Amino acid sequence: MRKRDTLWETITSIRLTKLFFLRLFEGLILFIALGSAIRFSRQLWNILFEMPFKFKLSDTAMNIMLYGDFAYVLIMVGLAIGILAANKRFIRVASVITIFLAIVLLLAKSPLLITNILGMLVSLIGIWFSYRAKL
User: Fold this and answer.
1) N or C: which end of the chain has fewer CB within 10 A?
2) Does residue 113 register a pLDDT over 80?
């Protein structure tokens, strides 16, 4: 029979090294990216079902912004998947696209200012991870 460690032995055997903190920070960034994507998709869902179904020129501009928001959600989820899969090139590409979309949405005065800034921060940290960490 194999001797298995108890929970206490497992917890006390964790060493606080540089790699441990990088992995902990990476997990935190993963959950922030997923949370940002979920928040964006909930807001997008609310906007879509609260809009009146009339056609105006301003609605076309609003629809373009909604497509931008939807692309932002997909890229943030892709960034989270890239962090989970530890694919450095995918993390870099998704981070650059997310930064570009966040800047465009900030210039278009999207109502989700804090989520945009948080997404840009997550993307910058994702780029840093892809160069710094041993994924």
Assistant:
1) N
2) no
29 and 129 in contact (C-beta within 8 Å)? yes
Q: What are 31-39's contacts with CB under 8 Å, separation 24+? A: 32/118, 32/122, 33/76, 33/77, 33/79, 33/80, 33/83, 33/119, 33/122, 33/126, 34/76, 34/77, 34/80, 36/76, 36/115, 36/118, 36/119, 36/122, 37/73, 37/76, 37/77, 37/80, 39/112, 39/115
How is residue 35 written in tokens? 């949370």
Euclidean distance between CA atoms 135 and 1, whole angstroms? 35
Question: Alpha-carbon dihedral of residues 94, 96, 101, 106, nearest 10 degrees?
Answer: 130
Contact of 126 with 95, CB cutoff 8 Å: yes
> What's the CA gap between 104 and 116, in Å, rounded?
10
Distance CA 59, CA 57 (A): 5
Q: How many CB atoms lie within 10 A of CB 38?
A: 13
The CA distance from 88 to 90, in Å, is 6
Q: In this structure, how many other beta carbons lie within 10 angstroms of the beta carbon of residue 100?
A: 14
pLDDT band of residue 114 (cuts 50, 70, 90) is confident
